[in-house]
């Protein structure tokens, strides 16, 4: 079946602009996760959704970052007033239920110039 | 001690040999453990998960879990050049927590 999809695959934006990153989880997966991976670094947790509620937002780096999810479907990660340090690959993952194994999408590579 | 520790490598293994990757963790209550493979420039790919003490085999991969010693291993038999990648160990941040904590990964190179 279809895996996790993310769009766009690449995004180049100017410092100070807002960006929206989209994630479509695997159908039927109730849990959705956002991670960030800077070049050559490990995975950094950002936020987790169970359904459309976000029990854990502890990883969001600043109030410039926000995310929402519609039902048990699409999620959008929004970064306002982008900074150069926001440049990274943003990865989305989903799981059937919150304790199950997570499957990752291909990521969105964000470059802030 | 970090929640999840892995040797960053690089680990070089001859083609056809067994590659052994190790991960130690600090939370004794951890119940589920995951191994991901990440090729350069790609997203992590789930290859194994294990919940019970002992071994779990899937093709050329074997995950080994020892909760008393707080380590989990991944063995790759008959290593192939296509196995060259970074291998990430992951487990819930706290017992029963939904957030996964990832190790920094071990870079594996299979030498033809």
Task: Give a summary of the structure in a few sentences.
Chain A is mainly beta and 113 residues long. Helices cover 0% and strands 50% of the residues of chain A. In chain B, a hairpin with a 7-residue loop joins β9 and β10.
Write the layout of secondary structure elements.
The complex is a heterodimer of chains A (113) and B (112).
Chain A: E1 5-7, E2 10-13, E3 19-24, E4 31-37, E5 43-50, E6 53-56, E7 65-69, E8 75-79, E9 88-95, E10 103-104, E11 108-112
Parallel strand pairs in A: 2-11
Antiparallel strand pairs in A: 1-3, 3-8, 4-5, 4-9, 5-6, 7-8, 9-10, 9-11
Chain B: E1 4-6, E2 11-14, E3 19-25, E4 33-38, E5 45-50, E6 54-58, E7 61-66, E8 71-76, E9 85-92, E10 100-102, E11 106-111
Parallel strand pairs in B: 2-11
Antiparallel strand pairs in B: 1-3, 3-8, 4-5, 4-9, 6-7, 7-8, 9-10, 9-11
Structural class of chain B: mainly beta
- First-to-last CA distance of chain B: 36 Å
Residue stretches of chain A low in confidence (pLDDT < 50, at least 5 long) are none
Q: Strand portion of chain B, in percent?
A: over 45%
Radius of gyration from the alpha-carbon trace of chain A, in angstroms:
13 Å
Chain pair forming the biggest interface: A-B, 22 and 21 residues
Largest sheet of chain A: 7 strands, mixed
The helix-strand sequence of chain B is EEEEEEEEEEE
Quaternary form: heterodimer
Report the average pLDDT across residues of chain B: 90
Structural class of chain A: mainly beta
Q: Number of helical runs of chain A?
A: 0
Overall 3D shape of chain A: globular
